[in-house]
Amino acid sequence: MAFTKAANSLKSRKSATHEYVNEAYQPFPEEDEDEGYKISGSDENDDVSSVDTESTASNNDSAYQTILKASNDSAPVERQKRKSTKKKLRSSNKWDVFRETSEDNVSSSELDFWNTVFKVTKVIFAIILFILVLGTAVISKSTLFILTSNIFPPNSFRNTSLKTSHFHFRYQTSETAVTYIWSLVLVVIAPYFFTMVGKVWKLIFKKTRPLEFKPLLVALLVETIHSVGLSLFIFVLLPNMDPVAGALFCLNVAILPTLLNLVYSGVNVEVYEETSTERLIRRVLTFGGLGSSLVSLAFWTYYVYKSDSDWQKDKPGLTIFAVLSPIFVSVYWWENFVPQGDLTATGLRKLKRQLSSRRTKISTIVNLWKIVITICMVVVIFGVDCTDGITCLQTIFDVTSNSTLSSASFGHTNLVINVIVGTCSKYLPLFIAAVNIVASFFCYRCCVSANKILAQIPSFSVPLILSTPVTLAFMIGEYSQTELKMTDTCFLPFPRWSGDVEFDWSIIIGSILGYVAIVMVSSYIWRQTKERMQREDRMFVQPMYCGILLDQSMILNRRKYEDDTKGLDEKEKPVELPIPDNLDEWQPGNEEWSPLRNVDTPFIYLCATMWHETENEMTQILKSLFRMDEDQCARRNLQLFFGIRDPDYYEFEAHIFFDDAFDYNGDEATANGYVKQLIRTIDVAISSVHAFGMKIPPPTKIDTPYGGRLIWRLPGGNKMIAHLKDKAKIRHRKRWSQVMYMYYFLAHKLLSLGGGKERIKTIADNTFVLALDGDVDFQPAALKLLVDRMKRNPNVGAACGRIHPIGSGPMVWYQKFEYAVSHWLQKATEHTIGCVLCSPGCFSLFRGSSLMDDNVMRRYTTPPTEARHYVQYDQGEDRWLCTLLLQQGYRVEYCAASDALTYAPEGFYEFYNQRRRWTPSTMANILDLLLDFKNVTKRNNDISMLYIMYQMLLMVSSILTPGTIFLMILGALNMAYPTLSLYWALVINLLPVGIFILLCYLAKGDTQLAYAAVLSTVYSLVMMLVIVGLLKQAADNGFCSVTTVFLCFVAGVFVLAAFIHPQEFWCILHGFLYFLAIPSMSMLLMLYSIGNLHVVSWGTRETPKPATAPKPGEIKKQPEKRGAVQEWLEKLGLAEKAGKSDYMFSFGNLCRCVCCPTETKDTEDIKLRAILDRLDELEARIVDQSESHISAEAESERHVHFSEASDLFEGTRERINPLFQEESTSNKPPPRHWIHDQDLKEGAIENIRDEETVFWEELIKTYLYPLEGDKKEREKTQAELLELRNTVCLFFLLVNALFVVIVFSLQQVNADSGGSISIELPCADGNFGEAIEPISMAFTAVFGLLLVIQLFCMALHRMSTFLQICSITEIKLSRPKQLQPEERELSVEKGLQLVRDMQGIKDDDTKSVVSDDISISEKSSDSGYTDSVGTLEGQKKRDLWGKIARRRREQQFGTLSQNFVKNFKKLQKHMEDNEMGSTMNVSRGVGNGGLGVVTEGDEENNEVEMRNVKRKFNRFERKSIFTIVQMSRDPRLKQSILQRGNVVTSRWKRAALKAKLRSAAEQVTKNSTDKEVPDGRPRSKVTMLDIARLAVADRDSNVPSEAESEDEVVDQRSRL
Question: 27 near 39, Cβ under 8 Å?
Fold first, then answer.
């Protein structure tokens, strides 16, 4: 019946007939013509299918007749081509066995080394964080109680057991010093001040939402209650208790959290799908926490009342405060225990939502208010009940020296200014408060770091929970000492214990219950979050910490409801991922949506642009794509076959956009040499990533409206598509390639998914475009880091990584240091205080929804209409795209841990031409951003006016940099040669620079570059003079010199930056070359860029195309010989080519020089020369046609008249003049299409869908039609560019000239007047050092200020990068020989490692074949069968070579999924054997039944199993062997592998067979009479074996896995 449903339903379903087959999730390779889809090693299913064929077909006559028609058709030509290609490759070139591979730029050993370093570093850092958090928390508590113990000390008026613990504590003084009170005030308000500074910084540099009155009023009310309660707590309750009781009383501040935890205990429970056991535990914790908190409060109230009643029974003020103060304090954390509501929520949930959205401005006002409240409470507590009027207030504010406070509620004490203990300083309380504040702040930052690196439990939860017991132990230990000495005569004023040890059971019971309440209500802190680099507002509800209750505030403030923020974490309990419901409904032709993809699954389009890359550069990008394919395939197989949810799962497509990909020979278009070079390079790249000799099928070729398309199926099942752009059909250059793929992916493919606006928005938010250059090299981990940046902040529109230039030569060395400094300082600063202005197009990730926003993608299609557009739009397209994103309000970030390598220009000319594009584009885009600062600061929350001012300073310094360098060289000449006056030094320096400026106006580009190269060499020698001068100045003045100090500061910044970037430390060695090149790169390069502003060519990779053989009969023209003078004049650009000049130079001898204008006439007739050229072209065409691929039959049928061939004969009279008569083309054969080029390999030929054709035609017509301006338009554009060049040059040169003249004039006047206008720096020895001018000092100060800002921001960003590296580093602290029960869960890291080993295709696979055969031979000989061994020797050799050949074929033509399925079946077989062995052991009473616990008696069995697994999976790494043993010990994992794998495999096979039957039925329905489809391809063939297989697959696919129930399977069958 399963077959009947399938066959009848397939006829009614519609499917595309011209789509190429998507095999991304298809692990079933085609082995032969009779088997459409077959799993390696699944012969058992095939046997069952063949047996069931007859019985199945007999019951389905109507379906049988339908399918029988389709079975009479022949197989598709594409499949035949693939098979024939494989056979040819297998049988040919057997002698070609030598290898050619591509070495990685970063070796695997280097990656392993740094991975090990990162793991060790994370472990050490986690241990350090544990120590720091625990240590700083103990220091904070201890110093706090040192301060509180000296307020309200026992005296003759009041000496209660509450303060002395039944009179066992002895205090150093009986007076209260005001300095202790103000020290406590500083401790309390310090976090308020830190919060205010942070929020004010955000208000300055970020944009926030407007303030609302109601949330502000509620926040003020809540914080007022908290401040009043905290003031009573710290200034009244704790000072009236002994230190031990006070430390324990701090545990009693979770009253309101435990109550709210009970009220909202059932909210959001359905999200976690809790079991009955989990529900019971939750209720116990909820009621237990509330009960413990209330009972603890009751015991403490009783203790305070009992201890204080012996002094004053009728006024129980402290007893009331003991009840109210903890409740008031606990109000502070109410938000953390109330779930955030939606738009329809009411009450506290609505209030929390309003407060969360306007936290910045509210926190700023509230914390200022809390500072005021705290000071007012101090005035009230210590100034109201004064015996002498207002003398207490005067004492507090240091007006009078002493006074007496007598309060029935607060206490009785004498107030004094200071209490000096021994010889200690009077500011000792302030020092103690400073230690407390620093320790508390440091503890908070360490807690934040621990959560960021996913070390929450060991470095946050554990130390904070232990902080109170450790503090008590520390304090009790200190009581045994007589004094806490700081020096011999100074000791801390801490009370001493005297007498025997006594216990108060009310304190003990109350403390235990309070501790239990804290632990119960904060059970969420033991749930490790999965979000890496979590922001502080996602970690904690309230900003910062509480200065008095440090550990309690950190615990209770840690966010409980993770879904309150947009970053949702995965459930902490590992849950098996269910098999996708649409797996068996998925069609191979539907590549838009895969079974594992959800709306929030990251989908990445990898888009590389190519033009004239070399073979080595192409290899790098291809290797990166193959690595991505391998990583994604592993993550896919992990989820499908093992059911483990991978939080980093993604899907991708690789696209290569080839500019100018075709060559034309008349009407015949062929792919150019660079496209063919790409096809050749694929085999080298895949052999470097996978096994040597591995190949992928030839590409599918598709003709498109923009040119062509080549589609490869990668070994992991993902697609790589090369889009071949024909510049005659579509615009070329990189920006238009980006417009092309942005509209294709985001406008055509994404919007066609449907499903409503919200669904499309979610998909767009999780769709990313990775812009790549054609030579970039990166790892999948680098891309994962960029995706993490996108996930953390939905407002991030683009993210870029650290770009490393590679290559060889001095120019590359220079760029290594330049790139390092720009990333270390410039990009880190932009990321920290604002946004990155340029995300480089060689490796940047863009969010799809941000590109689709208004004024971004649509404006990016704007063609240049003005001169400045050519500079801003086309010369730096990546920077302009980032400018559009910033203007629209999106953030652009820099991730230093994401590394990518790209080839840098190795030649001086190429480097200068590259920077000739970059420099004007950079300045134009920054200027556009600065001029639009009002709109940008209004729209973008991350760009503030201070950031705009920082960029303005950089812009001004960049403009004046050439003048500064000019003056530096002038000073170097004057310093090196003191006899040379400043005037002549100016002339000597101005002369070469002036010549270069003139050449930039008059000479050709090559001449300018040649002169710049020579001048750069000379200036590098001059820089040596600068070094000598600096050394001389340092020797004369020491550090009493601004120049010396500034130089040392700059060098120190670079060295420090290198040390905190250990992976890039060696870049500092190239700093000396960078120093020598300063004049060239900072002055000459700037002049060259500005002087060639009108040149809009690309500048790099403009190399001639790969050389091709000359056509038969083609005569290469020899260049005319020219004189030496003519050649030099042409090089200088002062003369035209030979035959065009109006001047003739003739040097006969030294005395004769004739220089007279003459008019050169052409010696040839122009019309006759055109005729001869046309005839040569016709002859070449005839020769080409004779050699074209025309079949013998077509050639014999063609009849050629004598008149048509008469022009082939030499001397014929009848000859057609091409100028006056058009060439006859009626009998010419049609031009050969590019798709039939043999160099593109014999892949399948397909067509794109009609709707996609319409899309491309409309897109090209609207935005991408080739720009064909007429001659007048081009001349007008060139004139505008020249005018723009002249304007910019005039401004640039004028500003620098004015700057040079002013500074030079000041120096000259100062020299002439004997230093009257300079300032001499005073030195430490009383002498005077270097004399400086005010203007020079001002510019030095500006440069220094910028460098200080960059240094500070670099340190912050580097710390963030270090935390990010730690967060992505997964570690396993131990790998014990015995598997413990807690290790039974299979983690994502372990699963990925196992899957990579299972799908990997390695070169050493044949070694296992040989070793197995040798072991068999040895066993045979040892068993006494030596005679039979000799008889079977020949057969064994044949079997051995057959195995090796078969394994080589699998390596060469297999896929990762095929290899995975083969190993997965081996794993299933191992699990079956292990299951049988475990059953037998249990029946005999041996072993543990597979419970996952290895006892001491099972060690031997464990070692045996390890060796057994190692023998079966000898290619796997040791980690994978441990994982397999772990899985075999877990019954749940074992059953999941045995059941789930079969279900997934059967459903996949069913989907493939249904697709084949559906395609055949569609063809029969469409046209039952034609034998071929319109494009000449025969139809597919469906056999009865396919029908039987579908029936068996339908039966097997309905077997439920562990993650499914029988009802779910029935529902799936009903949907079918």
Answer: yes
Query: Residues near 1455 by Cβ (< 8 Å), separated by ≥ 6?
Result: 27, 29, 715, 716, 717
Give dist(CA 674, CA 658) in Å, integer: 9
C-beta separation of 232 from 376 below 8 A: no
Helices 1334-1368 and 428-452: crossing angle in degrees, nearest 10, is: 50
Type of residue found at 1330: E
Q: By CB neighbour count within 10 A (0-12 exposed, 13-18 middle, 19+ buried), where does 1082 fall?
A: middle
Residue-level length of the chain: 1616
pLDDT at 813: 94
pLDDT score, position 371: 92
pLDDT given for residue 1572 in this prediction: 42
Give the whole-angstrom CA distance, residue 1546 versus residue 1551.
9
| Run of H or E including 711 | strand 707-713
Assess contact for 1070 and 1349: CB atoms under 8 A: no
Side-chain half-sphere exposure of 990, counting CA atoms within 13 A: 12
- H or E element in which residue 903 lies: strand 891-903
Beta strands in 469-616 (DSSP E): 496-497, 603-610
462 three-class SS: helix
Residue partners of 859: CB distance under 8 A and separation at least 6:
884
**One-character DSSP codes across 120-131:** HHHHHHHHHHHH
Give 32's strand partners: 35
Reading phi first (left if > 0) and then psi (alpha if -120 to 50, else beta), residue 499 is in left
pLDDT for res 1402? 65
Q: Is 855 left (phi over 0), alpha (psi -120 to 50) or beta?
A: left
Interior/surface letters 1596-1609, b for 16+ CB within 10 angstroms, e for the rest: bbbebbbbbeeeeb
1183-1192 per-position pLDDT tens digit: 444 443 333 4
- SS3 assignment, position 630: helix
Q: Specify the residue for token string 């235990």.
A: 512
> What pLDDT digit, counting tens, does each position of 781-827 carry?
999 999 988 988 889 999 999 999 998 899 999 999 999 999 999 99
| pTM, rounded to two decimals | 0.75
Nearest alpha carbon to residue 457 among 588, 596, 552, 558: 558
Tens-digit pLDDT profile for residues 698-729: 899 999 999 999 999 998 889 999 999 998 89
What would the pLDDT profile of 249-289 be if each residue is shown by its tens digit? 898 888 888 888 888 876 554 444 556 676 777 778 788 88
Are 1290 and 1282 in contact by the 8 Å Cβ rule? The answer is: no
Is the separation of the CB atoms in 1481 and 1366 below 8 Å? no
Q: Is 137 helix (H, G, I), strand (E, B) or coil?
A: helix
Separation CA 304–CA 310 (nearest Å):
11
pLDDT, tens digit, 9 for 90 and up, residues 168-194: 777 777 788 888 889 999 999 999 999
DSSP 1403-1418: TTHHHHHHHHHHHHHH
Cβ(740)–Cβ(1256) below 8 Å: no
Tell whether the model's pLDDT for residue 829 goes beyond 90. Answer: yes
Range list of β-strands (E), 209-269:
none
How many CA atoms lie less than 13 Å away from 466 in the CB half-sphere?
A: 16
How far is C-alpha 290 from the geometric centre of its chain's CA atoms? Answer: 44
Residue-averaged pLDDT of the chain:
75
CA 764, CA 850: separation in Å to the nearest integer?
A: 8
Helix or strand (DSSP H, E) at 1328: strand 1328-1332
Residues in contact with 145: Cβ distance below 8 Å, sequence separation at least 6, in sequence order: 238, 243, 246, 247, 475
Non-local (6+) Cβ contacts of 1317 within 8 A are 1306, 1309, 1310, 1333, 1334
Which tokens sit at 631? 């990583």
Q: How far apart are CA 531 and CA 791, in angstroms?
A: 9
The residue type found at 1184 is: D
